[in-house]
Write a structure and sequence with these properties.
Blueprint lengths: L1 H4 L2 H108 L6 H17 L4 H25 L6 H13 L4 H25 L19 H27 L7 H24 L7 H21 L5 H39 L11 H23 L13 H4 L1 H28 L11 H29 L12 H36 L14 H18 L40 H14 L13 H21 L5 H18 L6 H17 L9 H10 L1
Helix pairs in contact: 2-3, 2-4, 3-4, 4-5, 5-6, 5-7, 6-7, 6-8, 7-8, 7-9, 8-10, 9-10, 10-11, 10-13, 11-14, 13-14, 13-15, 14-15, 15-16, 15-18, 16-18, 16-19, 18-20, 19-20, 19-21
Length: 718
């Protein structure tokens, strides 16, 4: 490219430059050669020496390989010699071992005699005999071996006799008994005989432990006449002793029996299970007797702990002997729990009766002047809260039987039947029903001669209590019970809440009706005596209201205050504006005599009766003994109806003079002035008083009534 593109001058310059570079490079290479000449010479000498050494090493390796081949040949010869020596040594060792075995067989009788002697080491003798027995049997055809075997058998037979004698010793503990039977089995004694002797000896020891437990119990009295003394120890101590002694030893017995006789002919589990079932049945009977001595309530937690400990030890026994009374043990625990629930029910009943006694005492206690006792609302609140608190406390105690840390709480009975039949139905529902029956009994029970009757205030209080149970308490109690003792979906049918509420309401209705009858009868008794003891023909002209009428109004007022403490006012029918001033006449407009009614004709007295009966047909019928409602107005109306009806019937049986009729007129007007405000409908009071006046006029020999203004004046003054 330079030659073709550059001019001549540049080509010459370029040539000169290349010549200078070539000469400089040649000079540098000569300098490098001169400087490293000695190194090149030394490297060449070294390479030459290394080639010589390599050839020598190859020769030495060839010699070494030849030597190794020779050594390998020698090693093979040495190994063969060693193997031959080892084989000869093993043969020698076998001969020596055989000699030692023969020597040990020769020494067997001596060793057996030394170890099988009384007080020696029979276990070592048995091991020695077990090791030598197979060899001696194998070489029994040789006279020397047969002699050794016969001598050994004689020694072991003597040992077996001593072990048999020891087996009959009553002082043997379970461990020594097991060792003795085990040695006899090693001596090839009959297993069926040893099984019987083993169970007999162990049974005697277990029977002694049961006898010790029975000694703590008082003797059973079939007649039940004598009072059973309380045991010295509590139920937990009794169960602890029974579990640690009897149940524990029975578990050891079962384990030892299995280890000794399992798989041996003639000594199956059937013998052990029958033996254990008999003993456990006796133990359960003793525990039942001890549980029956638990009087009253005691400490429920102590009983639960005792039953839990019993169940745990029994469960350990059942793992060894499944047929040793699993159902009987579970039934025993269930009966104990149910019995405690029944006692709690009786305790609740006793507590309620005690509370009723306190209420009756508070109602009957004399009151000092100026000092009032507790009112009915306070007594009701105290009674209700005490009973409910006691019931909740009982549920808390019963809940200990289903606690999570209690082993028997996992039994099917305590998960289903106990919660429903024992607690909900047998305790809560049964108590509520008993309470309703007891309260109702104050109204339904026949009054025995000389027996104290229930005070009316108690009837009223119990009626309010049953009504409160129907409204809220029963629902609360059942909800609380179902939360603490949840029933299973597939469990037995439970009593529904509305059915209990209906029973409570029925009891409240019966009590309130009886209260009305009792109070009405008390007022009616005063009115009847006042009518029967008065001479209505010879009485003087009335100047005052009779005292008995004032007493009736006072008693009705007191009853109004009493009922108002526990029941609501109720609804009254709208009264007329002049109810308190309404005229009270001995005649209605249809039967007034001539000077009071122009239509009256003395010559036709039967017309008056006819008109009176016709008026009754069109008047509203008054039901005297109809059920009352749960309010004050209805209760007072019922009492007033009974009282005035009694007054009416008594007046119908008397014969009155003019002044007698006027006295009835004054008394009736006085009652009308004050009683109308207590009744639900004033027309009831007015209608009954009208009938009283009409009956008095009908029974009067000289029916001349008093002027109404005079009647009002006398009543206002009275």
């Amino acid at each position: 490219q330079v030659r073709s593109e550059c001019p001549l001058g540049q080509l010459l310059a370029r040539e000169a430059t290349l010549g200078r570079e070539i000469r400089a490079l040649d000079s540098d290479m000569q300098t490098l050669l001169y400087e490293n000449y000695n190194k090149f010479i030394s490297a060449t000498d070294t390479i030459r020496k290394m080639k010589v050494d390599f050839r020598r090493m190859e020769a030495e390796m060839d010699d070494l390989a030849a030597n190794m081949a020779a050594i390998s040949t020698s090693s093979a010869r040495v190994s063969a010699a060693l193997q031959d020596r080892h084989r000869r040594g093993a043969q020698l060792a076998g001969v020596q071992a055989l000699l030692r075995k023969l020597q040990s067989l020769v020494e067997v009788p001596g060793r057996l005699r030394r170890w099988a002697a009384p007080g020696a080491e029979p276990v070592r003798a048995l091991r020695c005999h077990a090791r030598a027995r197979a060899v001696l049997r194998h070489y029994r055809h040789l006279p020397s071996f047969r002699a050794i075997e016969d001598e050994s058998h004689a020694i072991m037979a003597e040992l077996a006799q001593r072990l048999r004698a020891r087996l009959r010793d009553d002082t043997l503990d379970p461990k020594e008994l097991t060792e003795c039977v085990e040695m006899l089995l090693q001596l090839e004694e009959p297993p069926e005989e040893l099984c019987e002797e083993f169970l007999s000896h162990a049974g005697a020891r277990l029977e002694a432990e049961l006898a010790a437990l029975e000694a703590e119990l008082p003797p059973a009295d079939p007649s039940g006449a004598a009072a059973t003394p309380l045991p010295a120890s509590d139920i937990l101590d009794f169960v602890d002793r029974g579990s640690s002694a009897f149940v524990g030893n029975l578990c050891l017995l079962a384990a030892s029996y299995r280890s000794l006789f399992e798989g041996r002919p003639g000594a199956g589990d059937g013998c052990l299970e029958a033996f254990a079932a008999t003993l456990t049945t006796r133990y359960f009977e003793l525990l039942e007797r001890r549980l029956a001595l638990e009087r009253g309530l005691g400490d429920t937690s102590l009983l639960v702990r005792a039953l839990d400990r019993f169940h745990r030890r029994l469960r350990a026994l059942l793992e060894l002997l499944p047929a040793a009374g699993a159902e009987a043990g579970a039934a025993l625990v269930a009966r104990a729990a149910r019995e405690r629930v029944d006692r709690y029910l009786r305790a609740l009943q006793t507590f309620f009766l005690g509370c009723l006694g306190d209420v009756r005492q508070a109602l009957a206690a004399p009151r000092p002047p100026g000092k009032e006792g507790p009112g009915l609302p306070d007594l009701l609140a105290t009674l209700a809260s005490s009973v409910l608190g006691q019931l909740k406390a009982v549920l808390a105690y019963v809940q200990l039987f289903t606690a999570k840390d209690v082993a028997f709480a996992n039994l099917p009975y305590f998960k289903g039947e106990f919660c429903v039949e024992a607690v909900r139905e047998g305790l809560v529902v049964a108590f509520v029903r008993w309470l309703c029956r007891t309260a109702r009994g104050f109204a339904d029970g026949p009054a025995e001669r000389g027996a104290p009757t229930a005070p009316p205030a108690l009837l009223l209080l119990l009626a309010r209590l049953c009504l409160d149970y129907e409204a809220t308490t029963i629902s609360y109690i059942l909800t609380l019970t179902d939360e603490q003792f949840p029933p299973q979906d597939t469990g037995p049918v439970v009593t529904p809440g509305p059915a209990l509420c209906a029973e409570a309401r029925g009891a409240a209705q019966r009590l309130l009706d009886h209260y009305v009858q009792v109070q009405g009868a008390a007022v009616a008794q005063m009115l009847r005596k006042s009518v029967e003891t008065r001479d209505w023909l010879g009485t003087v002209e009335p100047r005052n209201v009779r005292a008995v009428m004032k007493r009736v109004v006072e008693d009705i007022t007191a009853i109004d205050v009493q009922v108002g403490q526990l029941f609501e006012e109720g609804v009254r029918r709208a009264q007329s504006s002049d109810s308190s001033r309404r005229a009270f006449s001995v005649y209605s407009s249809s039967r007034a005599p001539g000077r009071y009614a122009p239509s009256y004709t003395p010559s036709a007295p039967m017309d008056t009766h006819l008109l009176s009966n016709i008026q009754k047909l069109f008047s509203e019928r008054i039901d005297i003994f109809s059920p009352v409602e749960f309010n004050k107005v209805s209760v007072l109306t019922g009492i007033i109806k009974i009282s005035l009806k009694t007054l009416l019937e008594c007046v119908r049986l008397r014969t009155l003079g003019r002044f007698g009729l006027q006295q009835v007129q004054v008394d009736g007007h006085y009652l009308q002035l004050y009683l109308w405000r207590f009744a639900a409908d004033e027309r009831v009071v007015q209608g009954l008083l009208d009938e009283v006046a009409a009956s008095a006029a009908h029974r009067c020999l000289d029916p001349v009534p008093m002027e109404h203004s005079v009647v009002e004046l006398i009543c206002e003054r009275g």
